[in-house]
Write a structure and sequence with these properties.
The chain is mainly α. The chain has a domain of about 110 residues: MetI-like (MetI-like fold), CATH 1.10.3720.10. It has seven helices and no strands. The chain is extended.
């Protein structure tokens, strides 16, 4: 029995050429990563790399804990209790899945920053003139990032936990 041979026709050559053009930036980045770093890694290690790694780990742990608490708690409430509009609540809880995390982060930042509508309304309502007149938590912080990422990711945990509880 003879094995089927593939012919290398014009379509295959076209697809290969297009794929090569599309992957050229990735290939160049990989090639550059093996080049001389001129002491860049040593500089990063001496200055900021440890802080970046610790912040990333804190973000991972914070998002994991808050997401688990929100997701499992809401799943248990919806699965264990039948109350009025519980099916509607079940669908509303899943709405954050439709929002990309980066869009939620932009909206959160724009909404709560100093020039945003929340702080502007508070200043108008109470007659405050400057940020020194009142306290508002720093929104561009590790806690803010944990809150935003958890609010977008908890529906995935909710789906798994709700299925397990039923």
């Amino acid at each position: 029995m003879q094995a089927a041979r593939r012919s290398f026709d014009i379509w295959s050559a076209s697809v290969f050429t297009i794929a090569l053009i599309l992957f050229a930036p990735v290939i160049s980045l990989i090639a550059l990563s093996f080049g001389d770093s001129d002491g860049l890694w040593a500089h990063l290690f001496d200055t900021v790399l440890a802080r970046y790694i610790l912040t990333t780990l804190a973000l991972m742990v914070g998002v994991s804990v808050v997401t688990l608490v929100f997701g499992v708690t809401t799943a248990w409430i919806v699965a264990a209790y039948k109350f009025r509009f519980s099916r509607v609540l079940d669908m509303i809880i899943l709405l954050p899945i439709a929002c990309p995390a980066y869009l939620v982060a932009y909206a959160y930042t724009d909404f709560f920053e100093y020039a945003g509508p929340v702080q502007g309304m508070l200043r108008n309502l109470f007659g405050w003139q400057s940020p020194r007149d009142y306290y508002f938590p720093e929104i561009r912080s590790l806690g803010g990032a944990v809150f935003v990422l958890s609010s977008v990711l908890y529906p995935y945990v909710y789906l798994l936990a709700r299925t397990a509880f039923r």
